[in-house]
Amino acid sequence: MSGIGTRIKELRKRHDISQEELAAQIKVSRGNVGDWERGRAKPGADALIALSSYFSVSIDWILNGQEFQTPHMKRWPQTMPGDNITPEDIELLAKLKRLSEKERWKVEGYIDAIAGGSAIQSKKPMEKLSPSPNGEEAAASEGA
């Protein structure tokens, strides 16, 4: 049994659900779950996201038994206080990571304006929002 399969089986047993129940919850076949647990196959990206969300564990833990870590943080939180991270949240984060730094600043400024939160302070000044011709807010550089 592969390490990934062992961890999937451990999670399934810990939550006291059958392969069939897990398969139904994450929308794969029971045979897929069995193949993963026996090490005959590995879950794809969509299945990993679904497993991570369903069991509230990181994809890193499913893949290698360790939590995601960088030099800047000791441990990636499983969830934010009061929140459940969904596959849609992960997909949105992946899209955000594909943006340029300037585009990220614009998105962050827009989110802060809508949510009424304060922007995270950094070395680079936050871009402010200005009204667009159609009445919606659009991100604009301070120097533009």
From TrEMBL:
Single GO MF annotation: DNA binding
Region of interest: Disordered: 121-144
Domain HTH cro/C1-type residues, every copy: 8-62
Cross-referenced CDD domains: HTH_XRE
A Pfam family the protein falls into: HTH_3
UniProt cross-references to InterPro entries, sorted A to Z: Cro/C1-type_HTH, Lambda_DNA-bd_dom_sf
Superkingdom of the organism of origin: Bacteria
Alphabetized UniProt keyword annotations: DNA-binding
PANTHER family listed in its UniProt record: HTH-TYPE TRANSCRIPTIONAL REGULATOR XRE, TRACRIPTIONAL REGULATORY PROTEIN-RELATED-RELATED
Record's protein name: HTH cro/C1-type domain-containing protein
